[in-house]
Amino acid sequence: MSTEAFQRVLTARHPERPYTSDILEAIFENFVEIHGDRRFSDDPAIVAGIASIEGIETVVVGHQKGRNMEARKFRNFGMPKPEGYRKALRVMKLAEKFGRPVISFIDTPGAYPGIDAEERGQAEAIAYNLREMASLKTPVLIVVIGEGGSGGALAIGVGDRIIMMENAIYSVISPEGCAAILWKDASLAPKAAESLKLTASDLYNFGIVDEIIPEPVQWKVSPEPDEIMLKLKEAIVKHIKELEKLPVEKLLEKRYEKFRKMGEFLEIRAK
Hints:
The chain is an alpha/beta fold. The chain has helices at residues 4-12, 20-27, 69-74, 82-98, 115-119, 122-134, 150-154, 175-183, 189-196, 200-205, 227-244, 248-261; strands at 29-33, 46-53, 56-63, 102-108, 140-149, 161-165, 169-171, 211-213. It contains twelve helices and eight strands.
């Protein structure tokens, strides 16, 4: 039996949803891609570079999936390896150096768990990004456009504001993985999806997400920016302009406070 939350999961994974490259083409101008981490290689699962939006010079990073099998294999199904996260951070450091805001698009089932990634320091690369992004001296806007899977998403997900597409998801684990661990049955993923509270509305109510971009219809790739894409553009520009007004010290203080509040809970004991 499916649930509303699991329907959001399936929609977030739909292969016709726009990916990072589609958004860059639709609402950004003058995108120049930057390749490589200067340590091992380039990782196609992460797209990074410089671009402008409404005259604002920015740096963009984002997960990238593929639509056919050849592209999916090339992009490693949107699951970055350590060199992808190091490339992303390299570009973010350029943003800090030249005073450009960072816009990070999240859409991954998670970081690649292969042996080669572990050998090259997958956990260290993720942890290092978390630390460095927390203290990055430039505005950072996070945009969850599809799947937000675990540490693989959070490794480029530490920022000042988080906005999320209505049908996107953001969770510590996939519903299938959660169901397999808790009940030894991945077919109970719909039940797990409800428990994980991974929808945009759930996360907005928890204070994790700052704005939800409505999706009145199924969001699909189109030659021209549609209403949803234009709403996304409007939100990105609004948040960047607001963040750029803040002094660096205040920016870092509010970023720290935002993430310190996550996970707070109130325990009420029955008398």
